[in-house]
Amino acid sequence: MQYNVVVIGSGPGGYVAAIRSAQLGFKTAIIEKYDTLGGTCLNVGCIPSKALLDSTEHFHNAKEHFAEHGIDIEAPKVNLEQMIKRKGGVVKANVDGIAFLMKKNKIDVHTGVGSFVDKNTIKITAKDGKETSITTDKVIIATGSKPTPLPFAPFDKKRIISSTEALELKEVPKHLIVIGGGVIGMELGSVYARIGSKVTIVEFLDSVIPTMDGTMGKELQKATKKLGFDFYLGHKVTAVENKGPEVVVKAESKDGKSIELKGDYCLVSIGRRPYTEGLGLDKVGIETVKGQIVVDAHLKTKVENIYAIGDVVRGAMLAHKAEEEGVYVAEQLAGQKPHVNYLLIPGVVYTWPEVSSVGYTEEQLKSQGRAYKTGSFPYKALGRARASMDTDGLVKVLADKETDEILGVHIIGARAADMIAAAVTAMEFRASAEDVARMSHAHPTYMEAVKEACLAATANRPIHM
């Protein structure tokens, strides 16, 4: 079979690249090694984790807040089996939707491991060992990433687990030890803290969510302490041992003090690594550096007809970043002039309160020596937040000191994940803080905090604080 475009990998980057290629008139195929489409995000990442986050947040609110709202119920009980079952239904609906989109766009789906024979020929090896080959003009590699294990403590999938196993636990952990205070660790820690687990975060750096603005990390740590989180920041893990009914984690602080933690599960969430196993990159001369496929500014590899997108190339490992790159490559192949603004790809943490961020952090601006001004506004001063009892959090706006152009927006609070889109829109059009401050914002809404933070940044004159 001869195609114009073949995409290897069906995660958000891959399936979006395939759909856009088909829309542009290319005869397109997609290769996926697993039986379901959607990659990590839909099967064992973004979608199932958000399903569990929503379920456990409902339980937490019923247990902690319903009475204050005047809703009297019997003490709620956790049915973890049903939570996992519902999560599975959400996943199925999403992956079935992707299968429908493949049919709708007349994209051929090949199931098996795709590997290069040469730059135009791809061998597909099915589970039963059967091999077939297809040829193509262009190839887009979108094989994603896998959880990174500790070198001295590989995943045993029983007590030492990755995010994949954390989404399928059969019991609520008594004590969940989380190594890594990044997005995945904080989200999955929240899932189990809400339903009764003691959660301990061990993080090598001095802040949780360390890639985001420092204020966000401090505020999220304060909020999750209310759920019962314990934190050991600035600690290096030195040993993890599965001792049957429990796992023992040893770590050292920067001043050399040792700690020993005992729990029934240890979630290792220290990051993810590009997944390129079985592709046969060496057969076509594609280079990798630290596991990442080397690409140019147009996402083209060293081989002229082969491109790579998403988690296997440089940049943030985010589903929406991969989607943008998938569209970019497809449109480029059609002779268009697409563009991706990597600075304005937002990041989100789906804890509660949620955290979202776009643009520069304050730490980045300081390191650049750039003159800036800052404005912030707390949720506790919002009428909408008081009404919903979601008063944890704030909006922080960074703007250029001279031009007032918005350089970064960082939000922690209710609905931050949705609110960040407005900041992205403003920054794509290079709005000033005053521009946003002078726009009418509906009352009462959480978005009023953005307006007030912009007022604080542009003229130090918030109205409601």
Automatic annotation (TrEMBL):
A GO term for molecular function: dihydrolipoyl dehydrogenase (NADH) activity
InterPro entries: Class-I_Pyr_Nuc-Dis_Oxidored (IPR050151), FAD/NAD-bd_sf (IPR036188), FAD/NAD-binding_dom (IPR023753), FAD/NAD-linked_Rdtase_dimer_sf (IPR016156), Lipoamide_DH (IPR006258), Pyr_nuc-diS_OxRdtase (IPR001100), Pyr_nucl-diS_OxRdtase_dimer (IPR004099), Pyr_OxRdtase_I_AS (IPR012999)
EC numbers: 1.8.1.4
Cofactors demanded by this protein: FAD
Cofactor binding note of this UniProt entry: Binds 1 FAD per subunit.
Catalysed reaction equations from the record: N(6)-[(R)-dihydrolipoyl]-L-lysyl-[protein] + NAD(+) = N(6)-[(R)-lipoyl]-L-lysyl-[protein] + NADH + H(+)
Keywords (A to Z) from UniProt: Disulfide bond, FAD, Flavoprotein, NAD, Oxidoreductase, Redox-active center
Pfam families with a match to the protein in the record: Pyr_redox_2 (PF07992), Pyr_redox_dim (PF02852)
Domain Pyridine nucleotide-disulphide oxidoreductase dimerisation, residue spans: 345-453
Domain FAD/NAD(P)-binding: from-to ranges: 3-326
Top-rank taxon, per record: Bacteria
Coiled coil: none
Note: The active site is a redox-active disulfide bond.
Family, as annotated: Belongs to the class-I pyridine nucleotide-disulfide oxidoreductase family.
Name used for this protein in its record: Dihydrolipoyl dehydrogenase
Organism this protein belongs to: Chryseosolibacter indicus
